[in-house]
Design brief:
alpha/beta; globular
């Protein structure tokens, strides 16, 4: 069976995967939820990828599952070692060389968020509770670790992985 390496989104807590790990193990897989201290300003995207590399170790038949900002780590790891699959879950999907800080404007996310809020009759801008946790049961949230958002460091760092597919000079295409 495969080894699923579960890469968290912004905040870096392995806890985010605590309901997924036992399900993968019941199915006969190994599951490793990586904890990345993203609140440490001395760390950035290269160190996040290193933390995942260390968690993988010598394992083969690896599936990288990356949530949200974890999508800026997974492709870098996948260029360092063979992996069976990279699964991006509700991800900030980067193009080669893009920074997490530029991703928002490059994808049109702020305008899409505003339009969705207007359709739903919401005001006040982004809220983690409203936009991310709206359908998570209270008993699950009660067990969550204290919130630790990512430091600013990775937001200015390019996601360094080579372009694959297409032809040289082709512009990336994103669906909006």
């Amino acid at each position: 069976m495969a080894t699923f390496v579960l890469i968290p989104g912004g905040g870096g807590a392995a806890w985010y995967w605590h309901l997924v790990v036992p399900e993968l193990e019941i199915a006969g897989h190994e599951a490793i939820a990586v904890d990345i201290p993203e609140d440490d300003p001395s760390l950035g995207l290269p160190e996040y990828a290193q933390a995942v590399d260390l968690a993988v170790g010598e394992r083969t038949d690896v599936v990288l599952a990356a949530h949200s900002m974890g999508a800026f780590t997974a492709p870098v790891v996948a260029t360092r070692r063979p992996v069976r699959l990279v699964a991006l879950i509700n991800a900030m999907v980067p193009v080669p060389g893009e920074t997490p800080g530029r991703w928002w404007e490059n994808t049109g996310q702020p305008a899409a968020l505003q339009a969705a809020d207007e359709r739903a009759g919401r005001r006040g801008g982004f809220s983690e509770a409203t936009h991310f946790l709206h359908d998570v049961h209270e008993e699950i949230l009660a067990g969550a670790p204290d919130e630790r958002g990512p430091a600013e460091t990775p937001f200015g760092q390019a996601c360094d992985f080579p372009k694959v597919g297409g032809h040289p000079g082709a512009e990336p295409h994103r669906h909006r």
